[in-house]
Amino acid sequence: MVGGISGSADLAPTAVVKIFSAGTAGCVADLVTFPLDTAKVRLQIQGESKPSLEGQRVKYRGVFGTLFTMVKTEGPRSLYSGLVAGLQRQMSFASVRIGLYDTMKQIYSRGSENVGIGTRLLAGCTTGAMAVTFAQPTDVVKVRFQAQVRLPGGGSVKRYSSTIDAYKTIARDEGVKGLWKGCLPNITRNAIVNCSELVTYDIIKELILKYNLMTDNMPCHFTAAFAAGFCTTIIASPVDVVKTRFMNSVPGQYTGATNCALTMLVKEGPTAFYKGFVPSFLRLGSWNIVMFVSFEQIKRAMTNLQRTRDSSL
User: Fold this and answer.
1) Rounded to whole angstroms, how far apart are CA atoms 259 and 171?
2) Which residue has the higher pLDDT, 1 or 34?
3) CA 156 to chain centre
4) What does the alpha-carbon distance between residue 72 and residue 145 come to, in Å, rounded to a whole number?
5) Measured on CA atoms in the order 92, 94, 99, 102, is the torsion positive or negative?
6) Distance in angstroms (rounded) separating the CA atoms of residues 166 and 102
7) Is 157 helix (H, G, I), strand (E, B) or coil?
8) Global confidence as pTM
9) H-only helix segments in the chain
10) What is the pLDDT of residues 7-35, one digit of tens each?
């Protein structure tokens, strides 16, 4: 299990411990990998305004080229545009989709020790959908901030002045439902991400420990997390690109997520669905490693603290 295997034999981590650990670990991972996520968003939305920019050269080329261009034209702070919303998202999002995964798995398996892959997939889909329901507004604001271009000297293409302003402006101009824009493709994406990310990590870690290839420590967590990030990027990239394009679109640009995907296919071809693949992998791979390693360590520390407290009573 993602949460159970690494717990102490005497005292398994509680659901509250897992939820808090997952949210905190998600924030740590976002702090480390946020520039890569911003580069991914910029590469994914590049080309959606193609008709109006015909004749202009491509602005962003590759993940490191994108990071360099952003720092050069917008300043270093642009790499962390939308970070506040990103941290808000992780506290409400990672805490649910990762922190409740073991709990849902136990519910679906009725407490059985032998949990099949179908049960794991169902648990991943459930917590992914629950997390989107809670955190979608923070995701919309995060993507909008990452997509907006800030140029020095007042020549910025700036939609929002702050995180709070973004929430208020979206609710005012697009209605409350604007904060849940792209909810359906995001639920689809996170069902896929959760199933590939959590289940891959879960199974690989379980096999490593079962065959005594490694002990339940950082090398084991690192290996399982890296594999989970790679599998997730390959499977989830097309849905992720559509989600980003749709959430960043102005009202009326697309009639829905399906129309957004079809427009991309017709105008830009199938390769458009893998725009930003390298930064996606760099980001997801590094995010998974930082998040899962942090998650296991925070969870273990909190469980040990709980055991110490209980023994002193």
Assistant:
1) 23
2) 34
3) 27
4) 18
5) positive
6) 34
7) strand
8) 0.79
9) 15-45, 63-74, 83-97, 101-109, 117-147, 163-174, 183-210, 218-248, 257-268, 277-312
10) 444 578 899 999 999 999 999 999 999 99
